[in-house]
Design a protein that fits this description.
Number of helices: 3
Largest sheet: none
Order of helices and strands: HHH
């Protein structure tokens, strides 16, 4: 893959930040389908950075900008996790309860068929 220049690298980090901001808003509004779609978009953007080999050397100003952006991305991610983890735990509990109910129903059906 062609290496990115400094401006394109910073633009990619800014695009990731914009996407994580939208993800946070979607999570706050419990728009789970939108959150999933945005997460996929974010994954594509981060994939662009991962494929970049090597990442360009940034001057001090751009490096400080990159660090600030990364901190904001991590802050958004922490807030998203704080919202989604309890929801995921509730979903897991619901699915587990449904599985136990199904197992009980199957067990009683087996007894009834004897």
């Amino acid at each position: 893959m062609k290496s990115m220049d400094n401006a394109h690298t910073i633009m990619t980090y800014k695009a990731i930040l914009a996407t994580t901001g939208k993800m946070l808003t979607a999570a706050q509004n419990k728009k789970w389908d939108e959150l999933i779609s945005l997460e996929q978009e974010c994954r594509q953007l981060t994939g662009m950075l991962i494929m970049e080999d090597p990442e360009p050397i940034l001057d001090n100003e751009l490096l400080q900008n990159k660090i600030r952006i990364i901190h904001q991305i991590l802050d958004d991610d922490a807030q998203i996790r704080a919202i989604t983890e309890p929801w995921m735990m509730r979903l897991q509990d619901i699915l587990s309860a449904n599985g136990r109910t199904r197992n009980l129903q199957q067990a009683y059906q087996t007894i009834d068929n004897i």
